[in-house]
Specification:
6-stranded parallel beta sheet, 258 residues, 60s Ribosomal Protein L30, Chain: A, 22% strand, alpha/beta
Amino acid sequence: MFLLEGPRAIEDALSRGAKLSWLVVDAAGEEAVGRWLAAGLVPESVGLHRADTAELARLADTTTPQGILAVGQLPAGGLDALPEPERGNAGGYEAAGAGGAPILLVDGVQDPGNLGTLLRTLVAVGGKSAICCKGTVDPFNPKALRGSAGAALALAVARGVEREAAAGWCAERGVAIVALAAGGKDLFVGRQPGGALPPGPLALAVGGEAAGLSAEIRRAAAVTVGIPMGPGVESLSAAVAGSVALYALAHDLVRDNR
């Protein structure tokens, strides 16, 4: 089960058809629940429990609850739950790259806010799938869900996956792994002649905040790319670097080198 808090995140989850089991609401959340009921967003199978503010605070994960929380059923978390990779311009934007929106391969990101941001960005660029290797924080951790603004519920997410299994899944489907790491080829040369990126569907591999990518994922990568930075800046956070790279891959954001 997962815990989701706040009216905006819960309304988004309901609109996406997430399998919620219970809603718990105090007086501050009554208006939102009434609106959802009137709009037919709440299935009859969802239990509705009213609580006072102190009771809700004991159940909540946040310091200042927003009047309503939901408990839902975790979706399937294996590699077999992932859809087949996109091979055309099927991303969320018309400008999506020739290989479709990338898959996100997360290798040891332990900060739930960083993971949530990466998943939110993946949805924003039209992505459908993410693979979270062992050592990565649970994407349905309450803080990660808040960080993604509930976007994780819009994705097929394989979690707790062995690194070798993740690499094998990509290889079997012709998905080239693009490792994001300092010192890699310039990401923004992209698919141009002499550029960094291979053709076809891509999986962007983002490593943990301290250790970076594992040796297993580095070995399996078709290419290692980096983000050029100005003097005096050693690195970006996993969330920022991964988000920049997701947009670059999804939309072929390349420089004109002429």
